[in-house]
Design goal:
Length: 105
């Protein structure tokens, strides 16, 4: 097992705190790999949502437009967590995935 430096331990702790805080505010979440078309489709599918929705990077950090475009340009998709304050909205996300890819669980 690798030993972590103090800086790494601090970073990991900050990410864990951020994810715990998001989980307390948004009881449902799903991680997806999304491109521009998928993001547009997902945003449209969530227009009729019941609660609040937040998109973050896979560590719970801000998903800025610069972040989005840089990662998308580099690897072709962005790993996002879709946080949902109302668990009923998870069905909308899963339906959007099935409609586009046919395999979202």
């Amino acid at each position: 097992m690798m030993m972590r430096s103090e800086a790494e331990k601090t970073l990991v702790a900050a990410i864990e705190r951020r994810l715990e805080e998001l989980s307390s505010r948004y009881p449902s979440s799903i991680m997806l790999a999304v491109d521009d078309e998928g993001r547009s489709y997902l945003e449209s599918a969530l227009i009729g949502r019941h609660g609040d929705v937040l998109f973050t990077d896979n560590g719970g950090g801000d998903l800025t437009e610069i972040h989005w475009q840089t990662v998308l340009h580099h690897i072709g998709y962005v790993a996002v967590i879709v946080w949902l304050s109302d668990p009923r909205d998870l069905a909308l996300v899963r339906k959007a995935c099935r409609d586009v890819e046919g395999n979202c669980q």
